[in-house]
Specification:
Layout: E1 7-12, E2 15-20, H1 31-46, E3 52-57, E4 62-64, H2 69-72, H3 77-95, E5 101-105, E6 108-110, H4 112-119, E7 122-126, E8 130-132, H5 146-154, H6 156-165, E9 168-170, H7 171-176, E10 182-184, H8 186-201, H9 205-219, H10 223-238, H11 241-251
Parallel strand pairs: 2-3, 3-5, 4-6, 5-7, 6-8, 7-10
Antiparallel strand pairs: 1-2, 8-9
Bound molecules: octanoyl-coenzyme A.
Length: 261
């Protein structure tokens, strides 16, 4: 898998790892890295051997220290919008990924780094993580979904405070406001993420895919419409082989063997 300049990709059993690998720039997302991430996620989406994806930054200092400020400095209104739309496309691909995506937030996750983590389904942080949306300090606004996903996750008031002040918060504060699910030591970060991925993988893959879809698509709808969506998806899941196998295995008191179909 040597086709990436800024990423390290590996597969361990049925877990795919994507490691952003620009440690000298604290893994800042330049346009090339955004394109490579798009390619890597797309290839994992299509790879039936991969059941979950874990995302981290290389080194011990940073997950992603933001969009590449060098590139941002030269943008005008047209190129700025284009840049943002390309970044947002990647974030939406991750958010709507059919397999679970876990962010291992292993240090600075600022600006586009917090936004990248927000697009993942679950965030686990190491105790040295630092998160925030510092764009206002650069005279900018978040552009990879921060003004939209952060308030949806942590609530409007807390998101307003973080985005307007541009302040950086530590891992414990990120945990307190619900920005990350868990904080562990640096040594425990990878094993914790892998254990969680394995726990999720043990469930029916089709069911996991439909849960992601139901939560993502339902959350922005009124409750009655969200419930209707859930009923429709439940109906679809009932015709999968995984649902037949899962219920049959329970009744036969054995472990299910899911095929992801
Ligand atoms: N972009 C480009 N280079 C970066 C970035 C970045 N976001 N962050 C760090 N680097 C580079 C530094 O320039 C430095 O490079 P060099 O050695 O060549 O000078 C190297 O990484 C190491 O960084 P520092 O020396 O600064 O390391 P420190 O430990 O002193 O500080 C910090 C670490 C606090 C993380 C500091 O690097 C920092 O403040 N970085 C910028 C954080 C930031 O503001 N991020 C938000 C960027 S804006 C954004 O993400 C918008 C997203 C939506 C954009 C929409 C697109 C249009």
């Amino acid at each position: 898998m040597g086709e990436y300049k800024n990423l390290e990709i590996r597969q361990e059993e049925n877990i795919g790892w994507i490691i952003i690998n620009r440690p000298d720039k604290l893994n800042a997302l330049n346009q090339e890295t955004i394109k490579e991430l798009h390619k890597a996620f797309s290839s994992f989406q299509d790879d039936s051997r991969i059941k979950a994806v874990l995302l981290k930054g290389s080194g011990e200092k940073a997950f992603v220290a933001g969009a590449d400020i060098k590139e941002l400095s030269g943008l005008d209104s047209s190129s700025g919008k284009k840049y943002v739309l390309e970044g947002q496309e990647l974030m939406s691909l991750i958010e709507n990924f059919r397999k679970p995506v876990i962010a291992a937030v292993n240090g600075y996750a600022l600006g586009g780094g917090t936004e990248l983590a927000l697009a993942c389904h679950i965030r686990i942080a190491s105790d040295n993580a630092k998160m925030g949306q510092p764009e206002v300090k650069l005279g900018l606004i978040p552009g990879f979904g921060g003004t939209q996903r952060l308030p949806r996750l942590v609530g409007k008031g807390v998101a307003m405070e973080m985005i307007l002040s541009g302040k950086t918060i530590n891992a414990q504060e990120a945990l307190r406001i619900g920005l990350v699910n868990k904080v562990v030591s640096q040594e425990e970060l990878i094993p914790t993420c892998e254990a969680l991925a394995r726990e999720i993988i043990a469930g029916g893959p089709k069911a996991v895919e439909y849960c992601i879809k139901s939560i993502n698509k339902g959350l922005d709808r009124p409750l009655d419409e969200g419930l209707l969506l859930e009923a429709e998806l439940f109906g679809e899941v009932c015709s999968t082989q995984d649902s037949k196998e899962g219920t049959k295995a329970f009744l036969e008191k054995r472990k299910p063997e899911f095929q992801g179909r």
